[in-house]
Structures are given as structure tokens and as C-alpha cells.
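WARN retry 2 of 3 for item q-0093 after timeout on previous attempt; input resubmitted unchanged.
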Amino acid sequence: NYQVRILTKQLLNKSFSILNSPNQLSTINPWFITGFTDAEGSFIISIIQDDKSKIKWRVMPYFSIHIHIKDIKLLELIQKTLSVGKVRKNSKTTAVFRVDNLQDLQVIIDHFKKYPLVSAKYSDFLLFEQCYKLIQHKKHLTLSGLEKILALKSNLNKGLTDDLKNAFPNIIPVVRPEYKFNGIPNPFWISGFVSGDSSFSVSIENSNNKLGKRVRLIF
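OK item q-0093 returned
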């Protein structure tokens, strides 16, 4: 259980667990998934050379959440809730939840349309969605369609690789969608985001009190 204090009589001291039912390993609240994605998720458009392709390039969209292996059960629960993608060990210390099937990616897009991201990652999602629609309509199989995807990818995550920049030097990046913070939509989002990207610590410092030390709890 993740406790979140909300300053209303209705929600005060309510438990915002990742579980929707008393049954352990049931399903996760969808806002928790969005919050966790804001912290740890990635929307990727991978473009690599492929001599078998008519245009010599292969485009692969995918969504992933990459975390420490100790939390692999959480990824399995996310996969179970969304009913798409696969969870696997990525190394001795990491695990990944990945969705790369085109039909399954529609489920991912539908989720984030209904439960939108809160952070600047929302802009990445919008660029990814535009790329997905081009791929869905097979535009990535033409040079002009590939160039449109490259223009979108230029402002997605880390942008274009050096190989892509050298191969397509005339690509003009699209304007990155404007991000505007509109507040926290649901307490479960906080639980998800904190689970993915926060820390709890105890600090012991020198002080002028009788003990000569001061203890601070930090979140």
C-alpha cells in the first residue's frame, strides 16, 4: 500500500494501493500505470538499415518500461492489466515490459488517451502517436513517409542517431508539441510516479543541540 494524504475529508487517510482488489496480483489501477510510465516508461521509434526492405530502412515502434529486476512482479502486473506485451529479464539486474506488436500498441495509445500522461513525456507520446498512425497506414514503406517519421523522431527522446543524420541530412524536425502542466488528475498517479522515481532517506547531520546531531527524514 502507498499512503497519500489528500486534504479533503472524503479522501483523508484513504489507501491508494496499486491493487484494485483484495486479491494479490490482480490488476493495477490505470492511473497508477500512467504515473509509473511518467517516471519510467519510454515511447520509441527505432529505425535501422535493412537491405531486404525496398527503401533499405526498417521502422519499429515500441513502448517499454525498463526497471530493476527486483520489481519484475510489478511489470508482470502491468502486463496482466493491459493484456498486451511481454515481460522479460533484460540482464542480471534489469527487467523490461515491452509492447511492439502494431495491434497491441493501439491498446497502449488508447490507455494514454483515456489516462493521459502528466509530465513533459506527454509530448513524446503525441509524437509517437503520429508516427504510429503513419506506420499503421504503411507510410513507413515509402521514402516520403519515412522522412515524415524522421521529422517526428527528431524531437522524440534523444532524436536521430548519427547514422540517420548522415543518411538523411535534409530532414527538418517538426515542432515539438507544447507541454502544459494541468495538475495531478488522480492520487493513484502519485503512487505510480513515486514508485518509479522517488526516494526515502534519513539524514544525520551535525547540530548545536545537546546530542550534537540532527536527524532528518527526507522524501
